[in-house]
Design brief:
With 134 residues, the chain is mainly alpha-helical. It has one domain. The protein is 81% helix and 0% strand. The protein is built from six helices and no strands. It is globular.
C-alpha cells in the first residue's frame, strides 16, 4: 500500500468500543510510558482509530499524559529520575512551554482535519520507527 493510501483513509480500521479494549490500551500505554517514556505512538494510534476530531484528539492526549505523568512523579522521584536540578530547569522552561501551548492552540484552529490526520500519522510512524531503531 502506498503512503498516500495509508495516510488518507479513515474507514479502513474498526476499533472495538468496549471497556476491555480501552483497558488493554490503558495498560499498554501505562506500561510503555513507565518503562520507556514511549506511550505517544500507542495513544496516537488509538485516538486516530477512534476517529476523534482534532480538538478531542489533542484534549484527550493532554489529559492522558497529565494523568500518566502525575502517577509517574513519585516513582520517578524515588528512582532519582527527578532531581532538584531538573525541577529548576523545568521551572525555567515554563514560559517556553506556555508559548508553545498557545502556538499549538492557534495552529490547531487553522489546520484542516484531513491535514491534521495525515501529519499525525506520519509523525507517529517516524516516532515509532525511531523507537524501534533504538
Amino acid at each position: 500500500m502506498a503512503l498516500g493510501e495509508w495516510v488518507g483513509r479513515r474507514d479502513d480500521l474498526e476499533v472495538p468500543h468496549s471497556l476491555w479494549f480501552a483497558a488493554v490500551i490503558g495498560l499498554v500505554g501505562g506500561f510503555t510510558t513507565m518503562v520507556a517514556n514511549a506511550a505517544g505512538p500507542v495513544w496516537i494510534v488509538y485516538f486516530l482509530a477512534l476517529r476523534l476530531p482534532k480538538e478531542a484528539f489533542l484534549g484527550s492526549n493532554a489529559w492522558i499524559f497529565l494523568i500518566l505523568n502525575t502517577f509517574k512523579l513519585p516513582l520517578s522521584w524515588e528512582r532519582g529520575f527527578i532531581t532538584m536540578d531538573s525541577l529548576w530547569f523545568n521551572l525555567l522552561m515554563v514560559p517556553a512551554v506556555a508559548f508553545g501551548a498557545l502556538l499549538g492552540v492557534k495552529a490547531a484552529r487553522v489546520v484542516p482535519q484531513r491535514a491534521f490526520d495525515i501529519l499525525v500519522k506520519v509523525l507517529a510512524a517516524l516516532t515509532a520507527a525511531n523507537l524501534l531503531r533504538g
